[in-house]
UniProtKB/TrEMBL annotation:
CDD domains referenced in this protein's UniProt entry, alphabetically: beta_clamp
GO terms classed as biological process: DNA strand elongation involved in DNA replication
Name listed for the protein in its UniProt record: Beta sliding clamp
Keywords, comma-separated and alphabetical: Cytoplasm, DNA replication, DNA-binding, DNA-directed DNA polymerase, Nucleotidyltransferase, Transferase
Organism whose genome encodes this protein: Limibacillus halophilus
Superkingdom to which the source organism belongs: Bacteria
Domain DNA polymerase III beta sliding clamp N-terminal: 1-119
Coiled-coil zones: none
Amino acid sequence: MKLTIERAALLKSLAHVQSVVERRNTIPILSNVLLAAGDGNLSLTATDMDLTIIEEVAAEVLQEGATTVPAHTLYDIVRKLPDGAQVELSLAGDSGQMTLTAGRSAFTLTTLPREDFPASNQVDLPQSFKVAAPELCSLVDRTRFAISTEETRYYLNGIYLHAAESGGVPVLRAVATDGHRLARFEMPLPEGAKGMPGVIVPRKTVGELRKLFDESDDSVAIALSDTRIRFSFGSTVLTSKLIDGTFPDYERVIPSGNDRTMEVDRKAFREAVDRVSTISSEKSRAVKLSFSEGLLTLSATSPENGSAIEEIEVAFKGETLEIGFNSRYLLDIAEQIEGSEALFQLSDATSPTIVRDVGDESALYVLMPMRV
């Protein structure tokens, strides 16, 4: 194997594939990236057995071939090379080592046989449809902050993606919850997605997918079955196992009788919560919201830091109410609201609260209160 490639192009592809590779691996081959040169392209493949990424990048291939090298080491070397460098990769036939040269720099990397690398089986994924990358990005961004990190409730460790109906209109809906808050976002159902199975896309897959959106405006081809999902866009293909579990009936968590409403300027609210929460204790992060006609009072107290209070003008309907929330959760939701106004629908101090974007019906958030 022998090829020449621009440093910037190689770095971009390595950045995508190396993040799939776990830092600690009991199986040595899983620490490596598979490099395959042929037909004017360099193909890079990395896997952790649950998630596989394959990316192709243009290269001047002088001799076809394939090998595997340590992914993080190769990435760190290329990252530290000077801008504009031409990188030459060559594999000596018998030494079992790959040589990387760029200008006056030369590195020799140990390799493992490509035959040891797990085969990326192209399994049949019967359901397929396309989504514009910006729309899929919104679907991910507006829900992923609520994914649970509690491993015992593994079925909450991802985004639940499914076909549903909203007001009689078919939609593709994404839902995530950690038991304290719930995020739901929907978009028109893409052609070909009708009848798709409800699937739970794992947290790591969601994170890797999100990194790829920043560099692509292409439409994303999605193919899935009950156990696997594949995202293809540009020269990159991301294939992942799905979480084998049943997502809870989230509709039961969304309250329907919340008769007290508050409209507030999103930016002013977020900044007030951020300031007041400076006082709240690191453990609880509690902030108390006191609602009265035309006024919202935010307050926080802690034995270590003292107290804070701030008032902002709001449009509030209903009886006066005091309710406590985790300030971090309030800030996370405020960050996701793209419009200028946020709408809170409340019941009492112990019941779930609904938060909406006044200008966008496609997003809905549910937040559990806490004692303060």
